[in-house]
Amino acid sequence: MQSERCRELVIGLFFLIFTVIYASQIPAIRITGMSTFNSEAYPTTIAVLMLGLSLWQTYVGIRKFRATAADAAPQAGGGEYRTVLKTLFLAIGYVAILEPVGFLISSIAYAFLQIMVMCPPEKQNPLKFFAISVISTIIIYIVFRYGLDLMLPEGILYDLF
Fold this sequence. Notes:
By secondary structure, the protein is mostly helical. It contains 5 helices and no strands.
């Protein structure tokens, strides 16, 4: 019971330590100026995002740790394992179809299906999830293609653009 209560805290602290180690290695990167951003921009952005997420995870872990044993009791059921397996299957499928199908179509499909897997059945709204998938994929495509000047797999849409 006690290990369940402190699991979230341990995960948060682990990723916090990992982030500090990751960020400490950024100055060792050889700086290049081949695009709008230098070679430290991406790792620094990732480090800042990881720091924020690990701090949030640590905060959630502290709150759970302080909760009473009744509030911190794990929920029954094996749905978590099925969700993890579905996520793994979707990630492998995404990687498999990314190159031949292209970034836009495969990312929209992956995001939509992943949201459907993660959302409880009683709260699922396929139209809303599809809109979120399309909008977020287009924003990511624009940022990478035009902001960072990086090519993404075009796949079957190659001739259309």
